[in-house]
Amino acid sequence: QVVYFAHGLPALVVALAVIFFGVRYAQPIYQKLPLLVLTYVLLLLPAAMGTIRAGVVMSSPRIEEAARSLGAGTALVLRRITLPLALPGIAAGYVLVMLSAMKELPATLLLRPAGFETLATRLWMHTENLDYAAAAPYALGLVLVAIPPAIALVRVSLPRSEVRFSDPVVQSLTTE
User: Fold this and answer.
1) Residue burial 98-126, b: 16+ Cβ < 10 Å; e: rest
2) pLDDT tens per residue, range 25-41
3) Which of 91, 94, 97 is nearest to 155 (CA)?
């Protein structure tokens, strides 16, 4: 539940708190990529955790219990049952984090190393100077880079018509 704390705060507030931490306690990594990555983790981990948790909760524990009662070990149950059932949630979390990181602006502007540019920061710089013609290619680039993950997110979130497993133990458990 601690992970969700930063999610309720504006990204600017989290970035300023990380700057305070970096200046006071982590001077060697201040304005370096590791501190920016830490900030992204603080800001974006709740989105990943939510989708992963939803994917895991949707899987029935009865299937896992049945597989264990039939002699499958914990590692086999994890690999053949739990992970395939949770994979759509994990994939959705990955895509959501990727999309959010691409458009994250306040933390990137405040914590990026010198010379580190993203599509969002370049877009912001040009629009701040009212140079919309120069900003347009960066906006188009951001849209084009965001299309494949958005399509993947839609595909992951669509309901499955049929779940297939290659393990005979799981096949015997899922057939009625």
Assistant:
1) bbebeebebbbebbbeeeeebbbbbbbeb
2) 999 999 899 999 999 99
3) 91
Q: Give the integer Cα–Cα distance in Å for 112 and 103.
A: 14
* Per-residue model confidence as pLDDT tens digits over 101-143: 888 888 999 999 988 888 899 999 999 989 999 999 999 999 9
Answer yes or no: is pLDDT of 165 > 80: no
Nearest to 171 by CA among 162, 91, 73: 162
How far, in Å, are 48, 89, 165, 175 from residue 172 at the CA level?
32, 25, 10, 6
Whole-prediction pTM value? 0.72
Tokens of 132: 């919309």
Record the tokens describing residue 164, joined without a space. 């297939």
CA distance 117 to 100: 16
State the sign of the Cα–Cα–Cα–Cα dihedral 102, 105, 110, 114. Answer: positive
- Encoded tokens for 112: 């990026």
Q: Chain-centre distance of CA 32, in angstroms?
A: 21
